[in-house]
Amino acid sequence: MRLGVIGYGAIARELLSVLAQEGAMPEAVIVLMRERTQANCQMPGLETVGTAGELVAARPDLVIECAGASAVREHVGTCLSGGINTVIASVGALADGGLHDALRGAARGGKSRLILPAGALGGVDLLAALRPSGIEELIYTGRKPPAAWRGSPAEKLVDLDHLDAPVTFFEGDAAQAARDFPKNANVAATLALAGPGFAATRVHLVADPGASCNLHEVSVRAGVGSFHIRIEGKPAPDNPRSSLTTVYSLAREVLNHSREVAI
Ligand SMILES: NC(=O)c1ccc[n+]([C@@H]2O[C@H](COP(=O)([O-])OP(=O)(O)OC[C@H]3O[C@@H](n4cnc5c(N)ncnc54)[C@H](O)[C@@H]3O)[C@@H](O)[C@H]2O)c1
Fold first, then answer.
1. DSSP state, 92?
2. Do the Cβ atoms of 168 and 139 come closer than 8 Å?
3. Phi/psi of residue 173, each to 5°?
């Protein structure tokens, strides 16, 4: 297969190494990266492009965005209207309803699909399946070591350097979480979109000095059943904000696209 990748940071690099490990390295990998990075990058075997138009012209079978919300805004519409199925890791970008509608229109126009992966989470299949039965309650708690919240507005709400107990510094809905913590909005947005929507998804964000990994807890009460999930994800070596489980979820999307059986 020919794989397009938007961004070449922690997740993209790990993704390609998981595919190689699985014996599923695509025959061509075309990476869209910012020009500045492009000039500094040495990547034998990879083709690089600087715009979404060039990426579409390279005719990938599938594009994976792993660059951030701004990249979803800048590039994904062009991929979809160019007829390329596109998986986005930065699902939080869809908290912007106008962008979400525009991307749906681009997918309809290009006869392609916008694919939202589970990302750092598990259980999104069950949540989405149960949605027609009515989601009565969805509570998500994101718990990370204080260092993993650095560079976010949590710095202003809590003294990250001197915590001796867990502190819940945010409680609200997924729309507020996406607005106030855009770099940590992907998990809550995925739950909101698979489940009861942004306003009805409750979000708690916790800085926990006792946490040694990124912890995601999801509690769902639906019409035909309830479930609770707790995921302890190891951080990506190059970016403590990103869980490695996200890399494996994206790899699954590529493998499902290229193998005989999708699961
Ligand atoms: N769905 C999930 O559960 C989940 C979990 C973790 C991360 N993510 C998303 O994945 C993204 C990537 O994570 P990462 O750890 O690899 O980040 P990173 O910072 O290590 O890498 C991001 C890369 O994208 C590039 N980039 C940024 N904006 C771009 C643009 N507009 N056009 C082209 N390239 C651009 C950067 O130069 C960098 O190379 C995050 O920003 C986040 O939105 C999603």
1. G
2. no
3. -95, 175
- Confidence check: pLDDT of 33 > 60: yes
- Cβ < 6 Å from ligand 1: which residues? 6-12, 32-34, 37, 66-71, 74, 89-91, 119-120, 186-187, 190, 236, 238-239, 242-243, 246
Q: Which atom of ligand 1 is nearest to the CA of 74?
A: 31
Residue 189 pLDDT exceeds 70: yes
Residue nearest to atom 31 of ligand 1 (CA): 71
Q: How far is the CA of 136 from the centre of ligand 1 (A)?
A: 33
Domain 124-241 has CATH 3.40.50.300: no
Residue 24 in contact with residue 254, Cβ under 8 Å? yes
Is the pLDDT assigned to residue 235 strictly greater than 90? no
The topology (CATH level 3) of 2-116 is Rossmann fold (3.40.50)
Task: Give the strand pairing for 201-207 and 135-144.
Answer: parallel
**The pTM of the whole model exceeds 0.90:** yes
Domain residue ranges in the chain:
2-116, 124-241
Ligand 1 atom nearest residue 67's Cα: 24
Q: 43-54 pLDDT, tens per residue?
A: 667 999 999 999
